[in-house]
Model the fold of this input.
Amino acid sequence: MTTARTPSPTQRGPDLNGQTVVVLGGSSGIGLATARAARAEGADVVLVGRNAERLKRAASEVGAVSSTAFDATDLDRVGHFFADLPEPVDHVLVTAGGPYYAPLAEFDFDGARRSMEEHMFLPIRLAQLAPDKVRPSGSLILLGGTGGRSARVGGFATAATGALPGLAAGLAVEIAPVRVNLIAAGFVDTGLSASLLGDQLEARRDELRATLPIGRVVVPEDVAALAVHLMANNAVTGATYDIDGGQQLVS
Done:
């Protein structure tokens, strides 16, 4: 006669214990949520943001080892920031900047140029710095979106969105063994979303709750959990991960 044995639960240690995570755009939204999640997994965090006062509050909340306020589209300043870090880091997440959507008749070249600086030139500059500043098998994580995949949002947004997966894949080859991955988010309930939608925000939330397969709105913590997974899983590089609650399936 044999007696069934009940397996004991596995004790999982912190996935990022002893590692250092730099978050550009870390004072709010997805960046701040990722800083919290990384800290919960044992990492030290370094925060960068434009707004000094908001950044100070965020750094205090998560117990950041340091924080620096500057505009990450200033690529020279980005270089100086990484040069001043006392030692190499393990992961860099860049969340700075939002999407640029405008119909052709209202197209603003300065706004579009800034979007390119945030989503294309900044990742390229970070990739240039990574071989000297990110430890092997560490990661550079970019943040893009899924909304621009529809031609209805305009040619610029569609082109910029379509370029990011190729950028991530190409950089993953060029700076290996440092890993590069792209998170493509749909609507995420952040302060940025609130500023873009204004008084239409609650209607958009209601619409998504009613139509998304997951039955709720995606929040910053959802994206943060994915970011931390991509940091911890050193078999993943050159990939694009959609996180939109199934929004593309029902659009």
The chain has nine helices and seven strands. The CA atoms of residues 140 and 180 lie 5 Å apart. The chain has one domain: 20-246. Strands lie at 20-24, 44-49, 66-69, 89-94, 134-145, 179-185, 240-243.
